[in-house]
Amino acid sequence: MSFPMNGSNIQVHSYKHNGHIHRIWEETIVLKGTSQEVIGGNDRILVKESDGRQWRTREPAICYFTAHHWFNCIGMIRNDGIYYYCNLGTPFTYDEEALKYIDYDLDIKVFPDMTYKLLDEDEYALHSQRMNYPKEVDAILRRSVDELVQWISQRKGPFEPGFIEYWYERFLQHR
Q1: 80 labelled binding-site residue
Q2: Which of 23, 58, 78, 143 does the annotation list as catalytic?
Q3: Cα separation of 49 and 12, whole Å?
Q4: CB-CB contact of 168 with 174 (8 Å)
Q5: Is 132 exposed, middle or buried, given 0-12, 13-18 or 19+ CB atoms closer than 10 A?
Q6: Are 57 and 77 in contact (CB under 8 A)?
Q7: Of the residues 34, 46, 80, 133, which has the fewest C-beta atoms closer than 10 A?
Q8: pLDDT of residue 113
């Protein structure tokens, strides 16, 4: 698999199971790009929704994508601490157009005190039925929710103390 070069500016595209585009993040600076993981940073970037709406992110963020896990994490740096928004979805792929993954609706929001909340279970149930998510995908996603919760509890990967701050300092050097 190809991967984006450190310092390059890429787009991130999320799709739905049916292949339709879901959301496009216009620009993310690659801070670490390997075939195994991509760590990127962005701040107040344009996001385009599939329905044509557009909005800007409100704060700096560090994005963590992995080629082996069915989730990705966005650490948002706010005045009162770091909040995480974790998307349950396929491992990333990368081509010259963008970093891409399939978003499977379920999300986990993590608060600065490392408490968390599972979100969008209703949306997952609806889309699972409408788009015929295979049983294998459902099983992988259920295991991935458990794995992500373990990472949060164990302060692993992007939840490790200092991880977001370290990569945010690297991001500031690329701006």
Answers
A1: no
A2: 23
A3: 12
A4: no
A5: exposed
A6: no
A7: 80
A8: 98
Integer Cα distance of 74 and 94 in angstroms: 18
The answer to whether residue 23 is catalytic is: yes
Cβ 169 vs Cβ 163: under 8 Å: no
Q: Is 87 annotated as a binding residue?
A: yes
The answer to whether residues 89 and 64 touch, using CB atoms and an 8 Å cutoff, is: no
Residue with tokens 């216009």: 26
Can you tell me which residue has the tokens 């701050």? 165
CB of 27 closer than 8 Å to CB of 10 = yes
Q: Does the annotation list 103 as a binding residue?
A: yes
Give CA–CA dist 171/175, Å, rounded: 7
Q: Residue 1: its pLDDT value, please?
A: 61
What Cα–Cα distance (Å) separates residue 120 from each residue in 11, 117, 149, 173? 25, 10, 16, 36
Q: What CATH class is the domain 9-174?
A: mainly beta
Q: Is 122 annotated as a binding residue?
A: no
| Cβ neighbours, 10 Å, residue 133 | 17
Name the H helices within 23-162. 121-130, 135-154
Mean of the pLDDT values across residues 85-90?
Answer: 98
Q: Which two tokens stand for residue 4?
A: 């984006």
